[in-house]
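Before a computer can learn anything about folding, someone has to put a protein's shape into writing. The three-dimensional part falls to structure tokens, numbers that each stand for a local backbone shape. The protein below has been through that process, and both of its lines are reproduced in full.
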Amino acid sequence: MKTPYYLLLSMAFVFFFGSSLIAKNANSLFDLLSKQEVLELKIVTSLDRLTDNDLNRKYQPAKALFEIGNKSFEMDLKVKSRGRFRRRICDFPPLKLNFDKDELEELGLLKFDKLKLVTHCMDEKFISKENVIREFLAYQLYQDISAYSLRVQLVEVTYVDELKPSNKVKRWGFLIEDIDELAARVGAVELDTFGLGQAQMDGLAWEKMTVFQYMIGNTDWDIRMARNVKILQIKKSGALIPVPYDFDFAGLVNAPYAVPNPDFQIASVKDRVYQGEDQNNAHLGQTLFFFKQHREKLLQRVEDLPELSRDTRYEVSTFLNSFFDQDINRVNELSARENKVMRVPASEVLQTRGN
């Protein structure tokens, strides 16, 4: 029986124009994946190879399966482990996902083909879930602080072994937007270089970033070494913008494996250290006022995460409130010296203990 002509036309319309229908709702793969509060994602690959630290430094073939609305997707990709420290200590390593650019183009999506996936790290279900969502929250908080922030998407991932489909594990994680996509969104390019100092950074962007790191109790970053900070250069103005990432060592996250930064005399990752030393923070008062204005919004972010246990939400809120009630004023007092210009010598770095 021949297929009626009108059905052939209908099928051709779906084939040729289906991708553009997707593109109306999403410009990129990350846009597509971030349409739901929690995305159910399935990754099929060789799990033995992925978790073997001697083998997993190279990409291996995989498939990603997910649903957006009532539409199912099955996409080819390559996957590999990432992160020097977490790859060594995690039961399950964090991943980099590399999708096929041609397939993205066929779907009408821009060719931003790479995403980071923060995984559960430890096999223990409850603790690993709490750690993942606390770090996810840190990224969300920075989105409320700065337009120059990486977007994130919470996911429940089922990892399926391609050779033994019955061998599977389901855990929480979150996807991180690629830095190239962020750069395109804000009209910038990434600078892949070391040795840039605080004085070269855009003043307001720098202060927002350093006060944010102080608020969440994160000392695991270094601007000159480009450790856990990306640098964007705005095309029109030439301004340099720091973009922080990797917050698992922050006091707000308080991961079981996190240890205090040996560069500072602190006993816990929940000890706050302000790292804005030797920088003319001319607009620091304005930045601190900005944070105070956003207090309720930031605390509401915590309450809007039902995936976190009630006890954890209380602990995180208490830690953030210790910044607003106590530590933010100490930064302000220090900045009041020398005509409200803050210069913090290395011997006088501000240290306070979060609750």
About this structure: The two ends are 75 Å apart (CA to CA). The CA atoms of residues 204 and 286 lie 9 Å apart.
